Amino acid sequence: MANEKIGLGGGCHWCTEAVFEAVKGVTQTKQGFIASEGDAANFSEAVIVVFNPEQVSLEKLIEIHLATHKSTVRHSFRKKYRSAIYYYNKEQQVISTEHIKELQQYQRDAIITQVLPFNKFKASRVSIQNYYRKNPEAPFCSRYILPKLHIVNKNFKEVLRSDSKLQ
Fold first, then answer.
1. pLDDT tens for residues 87-107?
2. What are φ and ψ of residue 8, in 5° steps?
3. What are phi and psi of 108, to 5 degrees?
4. Could you tell me the pTM of the whole model?
5. Handedness of CA 96, 102, 106, 111 (dihedral sign)
């Protein structure tokens, strides 16, 4: 089975990139900005996650995504940090929409993550790509990225890469 890709946005793209780089089955992350259509046509921080669906399912990626950003909070930075899953085909749209509905029953607050068509991508400047890998000791990483990686380690250990520093 060929690799697939999905766009994920919600918080800082440095954080999202680091989270999905720790997941086995993810073969590449592309950090940057994604635009959809209509009200979501403006660019918002996000990553493209390229993954092997035989190693990690889209549903599992969605669960990790919702658990590692504020997927139930309508804060003032939502234009910059849109909570979204950007699909590339109809099957991904259906799976994403249905899985969010299924996961909603376990949440007290409404999941605000939108399921949107992927339209455009603009990569981050090279100097900030792979931020966590290049700067694991940086204060930003300790404060924002490590807590998200600990969530993956605690709740999704079965899909954590064996070469992850969290193992």
1. 999 999 999 999 999 999 988
2. -135, 130
3. -75, -45
4. 0.93
5. positive
